[in-house]
Amino acid sequence: MNSQNHHELIVSGIHLELTPSLKTYVREKAERLFRHEERIVRLRVELECDRSPAVGMQFTAKGHIQIHGPDMNASVQADECHKAVSMLIDKLDRMLQRRHQLHRVKRNHPHPVELAAEIPKAVA
Fold first, then answer.
1. What three-state secondary structure class fits 3?
2. How far apart are CA 30 and CA 85, in angstroms?
3. Integer angstrom CA distances of residue 26 from 54, 65, 74, 83, 102
4. Hey, what CATH topology would domain 8-108 get?
5. How many of the other CB atoms lie within 10 Å of CB of 90?
6. Among 65, 59, 75, which residue's Cα sits nearest to residue 100?
7. If DSSP states are collapsed to H, E and C, what string results for 15-84?
8. Tell me: the pLDDT tens digits for 35-78?
9. I need a surface site. Which of 16, 17, 41, 58 has the fewest CB within 10 A?
10. Domain spans, the chain
11. pLDDT at position 56
Protein backbone atom coordinates (compact mmCIF):
# COMPACT_ATOMS: atom_id res chain seq x y z
CA MET A 1 0.00 0.00 0.00
CA ASN A 2 1.29 3.43 -0.90
CA SER A 3 1.65 5.56 2.21
CA GLN A 4 2.37 8.71 0.20
CA ASN A 5 -1.32 9.31 -0.55
CA HIS A 6 -3.06 11.40 2.09
CA HIS A 7 -6.78 10.79 2.02
CA GLU A 8 -9.10 12.51 4.42
CA LEU A 9 -11.77 10.39 6.09
CA ILE A 10 -14.43 12.11 8.18
CA VAL A 11 -16.78 9.96 10.25
CA SER A 12 -19.64 11.60 12.11
CA GLY A 13 -22.60 10.30 14.06
CA ILE A 14 -26.08 11.81 14.19
CA HIS A 15 -28.10 10.68 17.25
CA LEU A 16 -25.42 8.05 17.66
CA GLU A 17 -22.26 7.86 19.76
CA LEU A 18 -19.28 6.74 17.70
CA THR A 19 -17.28 4.08 19.50
CA PRO A 20 -13.60 3.58 18.68
CA SER A 21 -14.39 0.12 17.27
CA LEU A 22 -17.02 1.62 14.94
CA LYS A 23 -14.56 4.29 13.74
CA THR A 24 -11.95 1.57 13.13
CA TYR A 25 -14.49 -0.53 11.21
CA VAL A 26 -15.39 2.41 8.95
CA ARG A 27 -11.69 3.20 8.39
CA GLU A 28 -10.90 -0.43 7.47
CA LYS A 29 -13.83 -0.61 5.05
CA ALA A 30 -12.98 2.77 3.48
CA GLU A 31 -9.42 1.63 2.70
CA ARG A 32 -10.90 -0.45 -0.11
CA LEU A 33 -12.22 2.70 -1.80
CA PHE A 34 -8.87 4.46 -1.43
CA ARG A 35 -7.07 1.44 -2.93
CA HIS A 36 -9.39 1.35 -5.96
CA GLU A 37 -9.33 5.09 -6.65
CA GLU A 38 -6.28 7.12 -5.68
CA ARG A 39 -7.78 10.47 -6.73
CA ILE A 40 -10.27 10.60 -3.86
CA VAL A 41 -9.69 13.83 -1.97
CA ARG A 42 -12.10 13.33 0.92
CA LEU A 43 -14.60 10.72 2.07
CA ARG A 44 -17.27 11.78 4.54
CA VAL A 45 -19.39 9.10 6.23
CA GLU A 46 -22.41 10.08 8.33
CA LEU A 47 -24.05 7.44 10.50
CA GLU A 48 -27.53 8.18 11.78
CA CYS A 49 -29.73 6.23 14.17
CA ASP A 50 -33.53 6.48 14.03
CA ARG A 51 -35.17 5.15 17.16
CA SER A 52 -38.82 5.68 16.25
CA PRO A 53 -41.17 3.21 17.93
CA ALA A 54 -42.97 2.38 14.67
CA VAL A 55 -39.78 1.36 12.83
CA GLY A 56 -37.55 0.22 15.68
CA MET A 57 -33.80 0.75 15.41
CA GLN A 58 -33.04 1.91 11.89
CA PHE A 59 -29.52 2.98 10.87
CA THR A 60 -28.80 5.21 7.90
CA ALA A 61 -25.30 5.50 6.46
CA LYS A 62 -24.60 8.37 4.08
CA GLY A 63 -21.41 8.68 2.07
CA HIS A 64 -20.04 11.69 0.22
CA ILE A 65 -16.93 11.29 -1.94
CA GLN A 66 -15.10 14.42 -3.04
CA ILE A 67 -13.06 13.51 -6.08
CA HIS A 68 -11.58 15.35 -9.05
CA GLY A 69 -14.75 15.82 -11.08
CA PRO A 70 -18.35 15.56 -9.91
CA ASP A 71 -18.80 14.52 -6.28
CA MET A 72 -20.54 11.23 -5.51
CA ASN A 73 -23.24 10.69 -2.88
CA ALA A 74 -24.90 7.52 -1.62
CA SER A 75 -27.20 6.53 1.20
CA VAL A 76 -28.33 3.16 2.58
CA GLN A 77 -30.51 1.97 5.46
CA ALA A 78 -30.21 -1.19 7.53
CA ASP A 79 -31.21 -2.58 10.91
CA GLU A 80 -27.57 -2.80 12.12
CA CYS A 81 -24.95 -0.08 12.00
CA HIS A 82 -22.08 -2.29 10.79
CA LYS A 83 -24.30 -3.74 8.07
CA ALA A 84 -25.23 -0.21 6.91
CA VAL A 85 -21.55 0.77 6.72
CA SER A 86 -20.71 -2.36 4.73
CA MET A 87 -23.59 -1.79 2.30
CA LEU A 88 -22.59 1.88 1.89
CA ILE A 89 -18.97 1.04 1.05
CA ASP A 90 -20.14 -1.61 -1.45
CA LYS A 91 -22.45 0.93 -3.10
CA LEU A 92 -19.75 3.62 -3.29
CA ASP A 93 -17.30 1.07 -4.70
CA ARG A 94 -19.78 0.15 -7.46
CA MET A 95 -20.25 3.85 -8.24
CA LEU A 96 -16.47 4.36 -8.50
CA GLN A 97 -16.12 1.30 -10.76
CA ARG A 98 -18.89 2.59 -13.03
CA ARG A 99 -17.27 6.04 -13.16
CA HIS A 100 -13.91 4.48 -14.05
CA GLN A 101 -15.50 2.31 -16.75
CA LEU A 102 -17.30 5.30 -18.31
CA HIS A 103 -14.07 7.33 -18.35
CA ARG A 104 -12.20 4.42 -19.95
CA VAL A 105 -14.85 4.01 -22.66
CA LYS A 106 -14.86 7.75 -23.32
CA ARG A 107 -11.05 7.79 -23.54
CA ASN A 108 -10.87 4.81 -25.91
CA HIS A 109 -13.79 5.85 -28.14
CA PRO A 110 -13.65 9.59 -28.75
CA HIS A 111 -16.68 11.17 -30.38
CA PRO A 112 -16.43 13.54 -33.36
CA VAL A 113 -17.10 17.18 -32.59
CA GLU A 114 -19.36 19.23 -34.84
CA LEU A 115 -18.40 22.87 -35.32
CA ALA A 116 -21.10 25.41 -36.13
CA ALA A 117 -18.77 27.71 -38.09
CA GLU A 118 -16.80 26.78 -41.18
CA ILE A 119 -13.09 26.37 -40.88
CA PRO A 120 -11.22 28.84 -43.11
CA LYS A 121 -9.03 27.28 -45.77
CA ALA A 122 -5.32 27.92 -45.69
CA VAL A 123 -4.05 30.41 -48.24
CA ALA A 124 -1.00 29.23 -50.08
1. coil
2. 9
3. 28, 14, 15, 11, 27
4. Double Stranded RNA Binding Domain (3.30.160)
5. 14
6. 65
7. CCCCCHHHHHHHHHHHHHHHHHCCCEEEEEEEEEEECCCCCCCEEEEEEEEEECCCCEEEEEEECCHHHH
8. 888 889 999 999 999 888 777 889 999 999 999 888 999 999 99
9. 17
10. 8-108
11. 81
Q: Tell which residue, 51, 41, 48, 36, has the closest CA to residue 75.
A: 48
Strand partners, 58: 50
Amino acid code (one letter) for 6: H
| Alpha-carbon dihedral 6, 32, 93, 4, rounded to 10 degrees | 20
Task: Provide the 3-class DSSP secondary structure of residue 8.
Answer: strand
Q: Is the pLDDT of residue 108 over 70?
A: yes
Single-letter code of the amino acid located at 104: R
